[in-house]
Task: structure prediction
Amino acid sequence: HNLKEGKTDIIIGTHRLLSADVTFGRLGLLIIDEEQRFGVRQKEHIRKLKNAVDVLSLSATPIPRTLNFALAGLRPMSVITTPPKNRVAPKTFVLPFGKQIIKNALEAELARDGQVYFLCNRIGKMPLMQGYIQKIMPRARISTIHGRMSESELIGAMHIFREGKSDILLATTIIENGLDISNANTLIVEDSSLIGLAQAHQLRGRIGRSAVQSYAFFLYPAKKLTEKAARRLDALFQAQY
Result:
């Protein structure tokens, strides 16, 4: 009601703000963060708004359709190529899944008192993967986070990890946006053949948030890698700098 009457100056929300039943009394500026999360339907709705509204879209990983519009000159684009001060780019490794690779990566990070994001994007597989990691690193403290947990469980698990009370955060792609934990500087993706290129870029952006050298390990099942997935991983490796 306040939006319709123009009594609210700034509203922060999800895709829900683009619903047909949400009306604005005096909308003048629309800022879209993480634009790659918006689908065609939402983008068409935004396009209709553009005649009367200024639109600023932000994305670290623009989706192909948006990028195509920009490169074709159909929409203006500004690129920030200067990294933040004292930020070291992550080193990316694309390797077949293997116990020794995981063990070396975990030992190296924990030896410098750092923390690790370990991504397993199948919730049903997470208990098995937790046992696998615990067997490799018996003394490591592991916490888990995924989308089926309650809000209080999510907050609790993240608080434990943020406070350094756990060494490894076993997670799904729920972590791909918004996390900034400077002490977490190793990312291990258990099966990167299952994630898209935009997701992979976003996940890699969770590490390297400080002046410490960070490492991203995108692992894949050597015998089950499709040609399309192989091309995605090659593009990720080539675009690491």
Remarks:
- The beta strands are 29-32, 54-57, 91-96, 115-119, 142-145, 168-171, 184-189, 215-220.
- Helices lie at 2-5, 40-49, 64-71, 99-111, 126-136, 151-162, 197-204, 227-238.
- Residues 68 and 74 are 9 Å apart (CA to CA).
